[in-house]
Design brief:
Elements (H helix, E strand, L loop, with lengths): L2 H4 L3 E6 L1 H4 E2 L2 E2 L1 H16 L3 E6 L2 H8 L9 H24 L5 E6 L1 H4 L2 H16 L3 E6 L6 H5 L2 H12 L3 E6 L21 E2 L22 H13 L3 E6 L5 H6 L6 E3 L7 H8 L5 E5 L1 H9 L9 E5 L7 E5 L5 E6 L4 H7 L7 H5 L13 E3 L6
Parallel strand pairs: 1-4, 1-7, 4-6, 5-6, 7-9, 8-10, 11-13
Antiparallel strand pairs: 2-3, 9-10, 11-12, 13-14, 14-15
Length: 376
Amino acid sequence: MRETVTKSKRLVIKIGSSLLVDEQGPQSETFKGLALQINALLEKGLEVILVSSGAIAIGSRELGWNHTGRTIPEKQAAAAVGQIGLCEIYRNHFARYHRKVAQILVTRSGLGERERFLNARHTLNGLLKLGVVPIVNENDTVATDEIRFGDNDILSATIVNLVGAELLIILTDVDGLYDRPPTPSGPKPKLIGTIEKIADNIDVIASGPDGTFGRGGMITKLEAAKSAARSGASTIVCNGRAEDSILRATRGEEIGTWIVAGDKLQSRKHWLAFTANTKGTLQLDEGASKALKEGGRSLLPAGIQSVLGQFRMGDPVACLDPSGDEIARGLVSYDAEDIKRVRGRKAKDIVSVLGYSNGDEIIHRDDLVWLEGPEA
């Protein structure tokens, strides 16, 4: 029994297009089962946000294609057509239980802006209070990188942090994560029931041929689980075709793979680490890099070797060690041009060089998240 899972009150459910659409079109029974199970959770007082793929797959069918678009403009066109159909299908199925649905379209780049991130949080919280089921998807009609490389697994983990969810359920077309990729002639892979520390198991990949309309694989599910764990949320990856898979997962049954929640990272620091759009780069010397990797230290001007990009006070920037690896991110206390003027100097020189001071720290430790070292 996964007792901590049963205590979750707010959860995010992600379902991929391979479960929702096949060569014949939208799978009515899948949508029906989703609505039935989510309504049952709502009846118990839980709050549910659904992250759903499927717009491009449905739109391509509406357009009479046997593919999902061969160019980015074609994919965007399919998404524009398919979003209407996808939301209408959900609306009809949830209407059987007198439930309202709301469509929320976001982009990862949009959520990378702190103001938009907070606005999205307020919107989702407002919908949950009203008892509406939010259906979130990437806005593929305007996105480009998301269509090429993005995946709603990663988006679902961002939503977990956005709303402070305690559980992420990722529905896929296999039973969970396996200890090795399946091969025609090799030994049968073993299902992994529990992963205690996702950071130690990021290379565990259950790979196989993707569905015609699917994009993304098990590696993105592991990345999503790692991000969710840093939000203090558990993740369950399970087969969405299994009977009552969502209800069984929330009851703590041994279904799929359970990735245990890690130490919760402050929401703003989680945003910095996983979602924020960095505006520039600070190249650090060996001493500053070591101090940041050890954790608990602010970044002072003396440790900065070079400044790249145009950014303003309060913008997120990336911190690189001498080898060029990103080791931290933070919100700067000075503009890029001012940091260039004080880089390599002692903190006491800031006033004499700039004529003012926002403090000794270029990035205060409260505004800094470490990607390497103890906190990471």
